[in-house]
Amino acid sequence: MLMVEWARWFLSELPLFGATAICTHLVMSGGQTLFHYGFGHHRFGGIFFRNHIRFHHGYYAKGHLVSSAYRRSEGNNTPYFLLPTILVAGGMFLVLPLNLFVVMSAASAASFGAHVYLDKAYHAEGSSLARFAWFRRKQQLHFVHHLHANSNFAVIDFFWDRLLGTYRSPDMDAAIIATVGTHPANPSHVAPDLGSKAVSK
Ligand SMILES: [Zn+2]
Ligand SMILES: [Zn+2]
Q1: Residue 186 lies in a domain
Q2: Could you tell me if residue 38 is inside a domain?
Q3: Cβ proximity of 200 and 68 under 8 Å
Q4: How far is the CA of 103 from the centre of ligand 2 (A)?
Q5: Which of 2, 59, 81, 149 could form a disulfide with 198 if both were Cys (CB 3.0 to 4.6 A apart)?
Q6: Which ligand has the shortest distance to the CA of 39?
Q7: Kindly report the CA angle at 106 between 112 and 39, in degrees rounded to 5?
Q8: What number is the average pLDDT over the span 35-55?
Q9: Distance 129 CA to ligand 2 centre (A)
Q10: What's the 163 CA to ligand 1 centre distance in angstroms?
Q11: Does position 83 have pLDDT exceeding 80, yes or no?
């Protein structure tokens, strides 16, 4: 009896839980895009800017977008956006009912993990995700960001770039991406001016 009631309650709450999880992910992916756009590529971003331009864009530059060894901590700003997330979560704890707060926490942890994981997988040689068309598309969109640092700041949801006006289709660069994306390790092709290009907006 108790079990049935619990199941009934859970099913009745399910749409609300689902909506909460989806909204949480959208706030996460939108926050990541804005954070990357605002701090990663403008001088006022301070340490985020220097890290991101020097390491992430310096290491994974044109001709060298894929590597068998991911430089994990170097220049990857994605973990930093955990800080604002924790602040927002603290605020939500005060206003949300406990069950929705639990759903929100689980969803933001999952979304955060997905961002970090995909960011790594895009640059990893022979990622197991490469067999999926959606992954290859997002990977190309991210590679475009490395070729044109004023575009495609998202990691997962590139419609945020459409809203920001920074979306750039990979089709224009398909030829370059097709060759550099699959042939790793050619540091001689590293574009030396990527950092300055990134700030000249
Ligand atoms: Zn960037
Ligand atoms: Zn990248």
Answers
A1: yes
A2: yes
A3: no
A4: 30
A5: 149
A6: 1
A7: 25
A8: 82
A9: 16
A10: 17
A11: no
